[in-house]
Specification:
By secondary structure, this protein is mainly beta. The protein folds into 5 domains: about 150 residues, Immunoglobulin-like; about 100 residues, Immunoglobulin-like; about 130 residues, Immunoglobulin-like; about 100 residues, Sandwich (Immunoglobulin-like); about 30 residues. The chain has 8 helices and 35 strands. The strands form 8 sheets. A 6-stranded antiparallel beta sheet has the order 1-2-3-4-7-6. A hairpin with a 2-residue loop joins strand 29 and strand 30. This is Ig mu chain C region. InterPro entries: Ig-like_dom, Ig-like_dom_sf, Ig-like_fold, Ig/MHC_CS, Ig_C1-set, Immune_Resp_Modulators. Keywords: Immunoglobulin domain, Membrane, Transmembrane, Transmembrane helix. It comes from Cervus hanglu yarkandensis (Yarkand deer).
Length: about 575
């Protein structure tokens, strides 16, 4: 541990902006930890008389001490050697001077550099992805000049744990019921570092006999962590065929693994719990968000309870629907509705499932995926009349269970917003010549996320869903990051020939008004062939030009030959 001046000298070297391998060391002065920082990429000033200010962020993906967050601020290339640092929170409140340190100025190539480090409890900052601190640098050259820069923490990739339970092998048992045996629960490959491991016996939490090791860092790419917990029990307890459960809580998710001396009981519960976020169609059409919690592989629904709650713990009114399947198992769906504004705000909602076959209630939390618009969808004024009485399969009541494939991406996933392109194709002439039914096709492509709905209107009125079929969203072959769907509407040849208009209405949250439409009718066929007509006109003009050119050439040749003949006769 050197003096403060020696620590400051470690800041004298320069490093290319954005390159992490060349780091700068800091010592807080009151502990043994040395923090390594990288220069960020948001330096602002190009003036040589005033300091250039850079944020300093940790080069490692997670700090070694999860209870605190350390950030830095670097001022470079200034003259004279007199600067002062101050820190502010996002809400413009000032960070106490006891929480940050300013290191001495260092001279290099005739220019000065200085830095400041702030260490704060992690619970006080960076609770939201867009949180930041503001570093202010004051320099007296030419008056009181203030340079500011935002400093954010390094983003940590979220990886779920892999949970394993190791049981004592039978050949290790002594036969003495009072001898001790150990169960080991291991969680690996997870990030961030915070994790909790606990043990249950037949659904009852165990406190005695539990010991936990420290969370270890695995030097991988990305950096992950490993943790374990040991449960010490007697051989008689283990051979009693009780079910021991290791429960792991990480990033607001719960994972569990069961173990028992009975081979059949070592398998985890076959019951599956899936949360299904509100669909865009529901929010668009009903101005409310429907939350669904699907429970599968139930041997019976006796003792089943599904409940939804808000982020503050307040219970939501939950309706439960059941369905029996051909393999004699049951499925259940618990539904709750909230205002669209609550869903759009990013509030978290938790589904809790209790059942006799579960050792303890399962909890699953969802929220609106990040990256979507903050404003609730609003119906386009011009379509209000056309959408009267409109309903979708997702918004219809009743016990029909949705497919598991309709589950949307994890709430922690950042969603890229891309509006769809919509094309409507009229029936082919071959179809119309049969004088039976005809197909109008609506192609919707190039959109993200995949949540979209398609509705048809005939003369401005909704068409019954039985008259058209819409495919499920699928990734585009050339660009899997965006999706496409197609919808086929069946119409009669008589209605089409009469000039009926058909409108494909597409709703997607990336659209400016959340909705767009394309209309087609009999007259559209002429518009489709306009390009062909242009080519035909071009061919006619080209043919005329060639004929005129040949006639002109023939005339010029004839006149020339006639003149040459007369000239020859005159000489003779």
């Amino acid at each position: 541990m050197g003096s403060q001046e020696e620590r400051g000298k470690r800041l004298g070297g320069t490093s290319p902006v954005g390159q992490c391998p060349q780091t700068r060391g800091f010592n807080r002065g009151h502990g043994s930890r040395i923090l390594a920082f990288c220069i960020g990429t948001t330096g602002l000033s190009a003036s040589e008389s005033h300091p250039k200010v850079f944020p300093l962020v940790s080069c490692v993906s997670s700090p070694s001490d999860e209870n605190t967050v350390a950030l830095g601020c670097l001022a470079q290339d200034f003259v004279p050697n007199s600067v002062s640092f101050s820190w502010k929170f996002k809400n413009n409140s000032t960070v106490s001077s006891e929480k940050f340190w300013t290191f001495p100025e260092v001279l290099r190539d005739g220019l000065w550099s200085a830095s400041s480090q702030v260490v704060l409890p992690s619970s006080s900052i960076f609770q939201e992805p867009d949180d930041y601190l503001v570093c202010e640098v004051q320099h007296p050259k030419g008056g009181k000049t203030v340079k500011t820069v935002r400093v954010t923490a390094a983003k940590v990739e979220v990886l779920p744990p892999v949970v394993s339970v190791f049981v004592p092998p039978r050949n290790s048992l002594s036969g003495n019921g009072n001898s001790k045996s150990s169960l080991i629960c291991q969680a690996t490959d997870f990030s961030p570092k915070q994790i909790s491991l606990s043990w249950f016996r037949d659904g009852r939490r165990m406190v005695t006999g539990v010991s936990e090791g420290q969370v270890e860092t695995v030097q991988s790419s990305p950096v992950t962590f490993r943790a374990y917990s040991v449960l010490t029990i007697t051989e008689s307890d283990w051979l009693s065929q009780s079910v021991y459960t290791c429960q792991v809580e990480h990033n607001k998710e719960t994972f569990q693994k069961n173990a028992s001396s009975s081979c059949d009981a070592t398998q985890t519960s076959p019951i599956g719990v899936f949360t299904i976020p509100a669909s865009f169609a529901d929010i668009f059409l009903t101005k409310s968000a429907k939350l669904s919690c699907l429970v599968t592989n139930l041997a019976s629904y006796d003792g089943l309870n599904i409940s939804w709650s808000r982020q503050n713990g307040k219970a939501l009114e939950t309706h439960t629907y059941f369905e029996r399947h051909l393999n004699d198992t049951f499925s259940a769906r618990g539904e709750a509705s909230v205002c669209s504004e609550d869903w759009e705000s990013g509030e978290e909602f938790t589904c809790t499932v209790a059942h006799l076959d579960l050792p303890f209630p399962e909890k699953h939390t969802i929220s609106k995926p990040k990256g979507r618009p903050d404003s609730a969808p609003a119906l386009h004024p011009g379509l209000s009349r056309g959408f009267q009485g409109l309903r979708t399969a997702e918004s219809s009541p009743g016990p029909a269970l949705p497919s598991l494939t309709t589950a949307t991406p994890s709430p922690t996933t950042d969603v890229t917003m891309k509006p769809p392109s919509v094309y409507v194709l009229p029936p082919t002439r071959e179809q119309l010549s049969l004088r039976e039914s005809a197909s109008v096709t609506c192609l919707v492509k190039g959109f993200a996320p995949a949540d979209v709905f398609v509705q048809w209107l005939q003369k401005g009125e909704p068409v019954t869903k039985s008259k058209y079929v819409t495919s499920s969203p699928a990734p585009e072959p050339q660009d899997p990051s965006v999706y496409f769907v197609h919808s086929i509407l069946t119409v009669t040849e008589e209605d089409w020939s009469k000039g009926e208009t058909y409108t494909c209405v597409v709703g997607h949250e990336a659209l400016p008004h959340m909705v767009t439409e394309r209309t087609v009718d009999k007259s559209t066929e002429g518009e489709v062939s306009a390009e062909e007509e242009g080519f035909e006109n071009l061919n006619t003009m080209a043919s005329t030009f060639i004929v005129l050119f040949l006639l002109s050439l023939f005339y010029s040749t004839t006149v020339t030959l006639f003149k040459v003949g007369r000239l020859a006769l005159g000489r003779a």
